[in-house]
Design goal:
CATH architecture of the largest domain: Roll
Low-confidence stretches: none
Order of helices and strands: EEEHEEEEEEEEEE
CATH class of the largest domain: Mainly Beta
Oligomer: single chain
Number of strands: 13
Length: 112
Amino acid sequence: MADLPKCPECNSEYTYEDRGLFICPECGHEWSADAAEASDDVKVVRDSNGNVLTDGDSITVIKDLKVKGSSSVVKIGTKVKNIRLVDGDHDIDCKIDGFGPMKLKSEFVKKL
Protein backbone atom coordinates (compact mmCIF):
# COMPACT_ATOMS: atom_id res chain seq x y z
CA MET A 1 0.00 0.00 0.00
CA ALA A 2 1.43 3.37 -1.02
CA ASP A 3 1.93 6.23 1.43
CA LEU A 4 -0.97 8.59 0.75
CA PRO A 5 -0.93 12.24 1.85
CA LYS A 6 -3.10 13.43 4.71
CA CYS A 7 -6.16 15.52 3.92
CA PRO A 8 -5.21 19.24 3.66
CA GLU A 9 -8.61 20.28 5.06
CA CYS A 10 -9.10 18.08 8.15
CA ASN A 11 -5.66 16.37 8.40
CA SER A 12 -7.26 12.90 8.26
CA GLU A 13 -4.96 9.98 7.52
CA TYR A 14 -7.72 7.86 5.93
CA THR A 15 -7.43 9.28 2.40
CA TYR A 16 -7.71 7.10 -0.68
CA GLU A 17 -7.00 7.53 -4.38
CA ASP A 18 -9.65 7.28 -7.09
CA ARG A 19 -8.95 8.03 -10.79
CA GLY A 20 -6.09 10.42 -10.12
CA LEU A 21 -7.80 12.25 -7.23
CA PHE A 22 -7.20 11.92 -3.52
CA ILE A 23 -10.41 11.75 -1.49
CA CYS A 24 -11.00 12.18 2.24
CA PRO A 25 -13.89 10.04 3.54
CA GLU A 26 -14.22 12.10 6.73
CA CYS A 27 -14.77 15.59 5.29
CA GLY A 28 -15.39 14.76 1.59
CA HIS A 29 -12.54 16.95 0.31
CA GLU A 30 -11.08 15.99 -3.09
CA TRP A 31 -7.77 17.15 -4.55
CA SER A 32 -5.43 16.15 -7.33
CA ALA A 33 -1.93 14.81 -6.93
CA ASP A 34 -0.56 17.95 -8.63
CA ALA A 35 -2.34 20.15 -6.09
CA ALA A 36 -0.94 18.08 -3.23
CA GLU A 37 2.62 18.63 -4.45
CA ALA A 38 2.07 22.36 -5.05
CA SER A 39 0.45 22.91 -1.65
CA ASP A 40 3.63 21.76 0.12
CA ASP A 41 5.63 24.60 -1.44
CA VAL A 42 3.28 27.57 -0.99
CA LYS A 43 1.72 28.72 2.28
CA VAL A 44 -1.65 30.40 1.76
CA VAL A 45 -2.65 33.07 4.28
CA ARG A 46 -6.37 33.81 4.54
CA ASP A 47 -8.25 36.57 6.35
CA SER A 48 -11.20 36.05 8.69
CA ASN A 49 -13.60 35.73 5.73
CA GLY A 50 -11.45 33.19 3.86
CA ASN A 51 -10.04 35.60 1.25
CA VAL A 52 -6.45 34.93 0.21
CA LEU A 53 -4.03 37.65 1.34
CA THR A 54 -0.96 38.67 -0.65
CA ASP A 55 1.91 41.10 -0.10
CA GLY A 56 0.84 44.72 -0.63
CA ASP A 57 -2.86 44.19 0.21
CA SER A 58 -4.88 46.59 2.33
CA ILE A 59 -6.75 45.21 5.34
CA THR A 60 -9.10 46.31 8.12
CA VAL A 61 -8.88 45.20 11.76
CA ILE A 62 -12.13 43.44 12.81
CA LYS A 63 -11.56 43.37 16.58
CA ASP A 64 -10.07 45.71 19.20
CA LEU A 65 -6.51 44.44 19.73
CA LYS A 66 -4.48 45.18 22.86
CA VAL A 67 -0.89 46.18 22.16
CA LYS A 68 1.56 44.18 24.29
CA GLY A 69 3.70 46.34 26.56
CA SER A 70 1.44 49.35 26.14
CA SER A 71 -1.90 50.60 27.41
CA SER A 72 -3.07 51.50 23.90
CA VAL A 73 -5.49 49.54 21.71
CA VAL A 74 -5.73 49.11 17.94
CA LYS A 75 -9.41 49.90 17.37
CA ILE A 76 -11.85 47.96 15.24
CA GLY A 77 -12.03 49.36 11.71
CA THR A 78 -8.39 50.52 11.63
CA LYS A 79 -7.20 50.40 8.02
CA VAL A 80 -3.72 49.09 7.25
CA LYS A 81 -2.09 49.48 3.83
CA ASN A 82 0.76 47.60 2.21
CA ILE A 83 0.99 44.48 4.38
CA ARG A 84 3.82 41.95 4.17
CA LEU A 85 3.25 38.24 4.80
CA VAL A 86 5.77 36.44 7.01
CA ASP A 87 6.14 32.96 8.52
CA GLY A 88 5.37 32.43 12.18
CA ASP A 89 2.54 32.75 14.66
CA HIS A 90 1.73 36.33 13.61
CA ASP A 91 1.67 36.07 9.83
CA ILE A 92 1.19 39.75 8.85
CA ASP A 93 3.91 42.37 9.20
CA CYS A 94 2.69 45.96 8.79
CA LYS A 95 2.97 49.58 9.88
CA ILE A 96 -0.06 51.14 11.59
CA ASP A 97 -0.35 54.93 11.77
CA GLY A 98 -0.01 56.07 15.38
CA PHE A 99 1.46 52.73 16.53
CA GLY A 100 4.39 51.99 14.24
CA PRO A 101 5.52 48.53 13.12
CA MET A 102 3.21 45.70 14.20
CA LYS A 103 2.68 42.00 13.67
CA LEU A 104 -0.91 40.82 13.30
CA LYS A 105 -2.66 37.47 13.03
CA SER A 106 -4.67 37.01 9.87
CA GLU A 107 -7.70 35.80 11.83
CA PHE A 108 -8.28 39.34 13.16
CA VAL A 109 -8.30 41.17 9.82
CA LYS A 110 -10.35 41.30 6.63
CA LYS A 111 -9.22 42.25 3.15
CA LEU A 112 -10.42 45.56 1.70
